[in-house]
Write a structure and sequence with these properties.
- This protein has about 80 residues and is mainly alpha-helical.
- It has two domains: about 30 residues, no CATH class; about 35 residues, 30s Ribosomal Protein S14, Chain N.
- Helices cover about 40% and strands about 5% of the residues.
- The protein is built from three helices and two strands.
- Strand 1 and strand 2 form a beta hairpin.
- The relative contact order is 0.10.
């Protein structure tokens, strides 16, 4: 069942408590177990360009902001 259909069914039975419980139990979307949709950035919640190495769990945009504070340095530029 797609998310759109799930919302449609949910709206139809939201006032009927017993039917609503049954719909939620059997028709809710499954939790993500693998893939890009499972991993979220700790700071902003983005799902793409996720860095998990060393247990960071941040997106690349947040990593650029936090890297100097964590002790990472840029290579290749002599300043």
């Amino acid at each position: 069942m797609t998310a759109k259909n799930w919302n449609k069914v949910f709206n139809q039975v939201k006032n009927k408590k017993t039917k609503l419980a049954r719909v939620k139990k059997f028709n809710k979307p499954a939790e993500k177990k693998t893939g890009r949709g499972r991993n979220k950035c700790k700071n902003c919640g983005r799902r793409g360009a996720h860095i998990r190495k060393y247990g960071l769990h941040v997106c690349r945009q947040c990593f650029r902001e936090l890297a100097p504070k964590m002790g990472f340095k840029k290579y290749g530029h002599e300043v």
